[in-house]
């Protein structure tokens, strides 16, 4: 017959084998869960990366659309006429022009001030958009730099007179002019 000690030893050994098997099974399940969690994290990271790329593409598209709207306004008759008039005007005595426009209110000088306001506001807006990062300075450089620099250099003395009355007038216009001018003199530099 089988002795009681042998049966107890057999039961004890069987219990250890079952415990080890249960432990190994839990380790394998844990490893499988970790692998699944890691795959889920990798997929989540890929999804986030794709989302960031999509957001960047959307941002670039919106910047291009905004710039094209500005470019179209820049080429419009409403802006081309004031631009052409200002370029052809004699602005050699800005102090006198400003005084005649504001103080005396001469109609011809008031027209000059209105032209300056139209052009100055337009170019100041472009400068603000670049300064705030809404449009890339390289886009402005590629399509508007010549006109932009020419207009600031034409209006600069008059704008400084205007700033005596309105200190922050067209400061973004001048800010962008300075950057474009440095890009013009040093073509390898960017904004």
Describe the protein.
This protein is an all-alpha fold and 191 residues long. It has helices spanning 4-75, 77-88, 94-103, 107-131, 137-165, 171-185. The protein has 2 domains: 1-60; 76-185, no CATH class. The protein contains 6 helices and no strands. Helix 3 (94-103) packs across helix 5 (137-165), helix 4 crosses helix 5 (137-165) and helix 4 crosses helix 6. It is rod-shaped and about 130 Å long. The termini are far apart. The relative contact order is 0.08. The mean pLDDT is 87.
Distance between the termini: 97 Å
Task: Tell me the total number of β-strands.
Answer: 0
- Biggest sheet features: none
The poorly predicted ranges are none
Q: Roughly how much helix do the residues carry, as a percent range?
A: over 70%
Output the helix-strand order.
Answer: HHHHHH
Number of domains: 2
Whole-number mean pLDDT = 87
Kindly estimate the percentage of residues that lie in beta strands according to DSSP.
Answer: under 5%
From the alpha-carbon coordinates, what is the Rg to the nearest angstrom?
A: 36 Å
The number of helical segments is: 6
Structural class of the helices, strands and pairings?
mainly alpha
Cα shape: rod-shaped
